[in-house]
Amino acid sequence: MNRTDAPRPGDIATGLNRLEGYLLLQAERDRAADRARRFAGRLDWLTVAQREEVERLYAQDQLALAEQTLRTVARRCEELRAEYRQVYRRLRWRLLVAALLGAVAVAVMAAAALATG
Questions:
Q1: Considering the entire predicted model, what is its pTM?
Q2: What's the rounded Cα separation, in Å, for the pair 21 and 80?
Q3: If you placed Cys at 50, which of 28, 46, 101, 113 could pair as Cys (CB 3.0 to 4.6 Å)?
Q4: 32 within 8 A of 62, measured Cβ to Cβ
């Protein structure tokens, strides 16, 4: 493997993010199936086939709810990221202006000191 074949840091981060997403999805599927089993377990009058169908539908609803929640959170994260970027740009601009005004003030004071001295 030469230098050009080495994975880039962005590729590694993307791969890790995908792996993390996969593991989170699997964990959520397990939790949804567990909740579905506990829910269907309280319905002791169901037949085996009915219980399996209730479990399947309940787990499916739980996963849909989790997906919608994650999409909402992700969308809000993107909104906040955009807001923070805008605030950061504004702060950088203000800092630059303040630095320039400070430099001008120092230059004017130095010129005044040279003129009077």
A1: 0.63
A2: 21
A3: 46
A4: yes
